[in-house]
Amino acid sequence: MTDQLDPHPAIGLDDVVHQRVRLGILTVAHQARRVEFGFLRTALGLTAGNLSQHLTVLEKAGLVEIEKGYEGKRARTWLSLTPAGRRALQEEVAQLKRLIQQIEQGGPASDV
Amino acid sequence: MTDASVPSFGTPREVLSGLGDLTRKVRAAQRATWFPLLLLGVLTLGGILVGRLTFRIETVPCPAGDAAAGGCTQVAQGSPLYWLIGLALAYAATAYFSIRRSRERGVGSPVRPYVVTGIVLVGVVSATTFWAVRHGMPKPGEPLDFWGLHLDPGSEAVAILQRLIGNAVAVGLPLLVLAWVERSRALLLLAAVYLAIELVPLTTGWSGIPSTSPWSAVPRYGVPGVLLLLGALGFALAELPRRRTAS
Questions:
Q1: Quick check: is A4 in a domain?
Q2: Is the CB of B4 less than 8 angstroms away from the CB of A93?
Q3: Which one in A79, B50, B139, B234 has a CA-CA gap of 20 to 30 Å to B8?
Q4: What is the DSSP string of B105-122?
Q5: Predicted ipTM?
Q6: Domain containing A66 — which CATH number?
Q7: How many domains are contained in chain A?
Q8: Which SUPFAM superfamilies does the annotation name (chain A) (predicted)?
Q9: CB burial of residue B97 (10 Å; 0-12, 13-18, 19+)
């Protein structure tokens, strides 16, 4: 019989979500329910190209839904979280809280 | 928002704190609390004018053993239709304003639960009021027919019920919902004060206006109306610095 140790919370962090810009995108989209590309770019202080790259990663992972349309003659891009995106964000936050708990209980502190 | 707000990565606590800051910034951009408060304040003050225009005094037979010379008088004022149409329009206008603002700012609005709660409760209050109107005002001494319950009009239970089925429910409860969806402690406080004014049996003698005056609705609607307008002004002023920063 072998003792199975609980995996370290850092193991549970998803590489797609656990990236500061993408985590910021998911957080804004979660609070806003539906957010426009321009608002997101300003809120996160990113260039359009940089934001687009991260959105492509999140869209491919099925975490966000992107909707393109027009308002008058202006092209607008809106994004919202998919149920998987909402779950992924909740899981990320839960893992971070577990990490904090572990650090406070005397485990090795680490940057994430 | 012009500052870079991507959460900086350090300890997990710093990451969570960065996400919290970002969430607060989005919430601030979503808020437009002044608009519904302004509409509700104007509507409430309008109730004074409606009360004045619909005011009437009727002479009715006195209850047995309480005969007064010349009979007893019964004061009637107010229009349930005014509140039904006014409140429904206020909630519809808030929904329209929020959708427009959401498109302009590029960020979704959280007001749907507020609007839905408001419209449902206006429906409930209106149904109750129209039931009461259809069954007529009870003569002095007669029991009050309320959805089949025969209640004593002079009892404390009826006084509480009357306060409950008015603006406390149709305006106060949706404001609590708005405070919850906007995570606004200031609005929660305002909604609590509003509910206290609507539900606590305050005497209106301090205003110097007798209940038989055509202007007797002034203290009843003036106090909550001014509270809502002051709230609207306060929230609008609080949002100004944020709007300036954003532009």
A1: no
A2: no
A3: A79
A4: HTB----HHHHHHHHHHH
A5: 0.78
A6: 1.10.10.10
A7: 1
A8: Winged helix' DNA-binding domain
A9: middle
Taking the Cβ of residue B99 and every Cβ of chain A, the question of whether any pair is shorter than 8 Å is answered with no
Could you give the angle at which helices B217-246 and B185-199 cross, rounded to 10 degrees? Answer: 170
Q: What does the alpha-carbon distance between residue B31 and residue B152 come to, in Å, rounded to a whole number?
A: 45
| Chain A residue numbers touching B27 (CB-CB < 8 A) | 31
Q: Is A6 a domain residue?
A: no
- Looking at the complex, report in whole angstroms how far the Cα of residue A6 sits from the nearest Cα belonging to chain B: 19
Among residues A23, A85, A47, A46, the alpha carbon closest in space to that of B23 is found at A23
Q: CB neighbours (10 Å) of residue B33?
A: 23
Give the type of residue at A5.
L
Which of A44, A100, A112 minimises the CB distance to B5? A44
pTM of the model: 0.80
pLDDT in 10s for each residue of chain A, 112 residues: 445 556 666 666 777 788 889 999 999 999 999 999 999 999 999 999 999 999 999 999 999 999 998 878 888 999 999 999 999 999 988 888 888 887 777 755 555 5
Q: Is A72 within the bounds of a domain?
A: yes
**A109 in a structural domain:** no
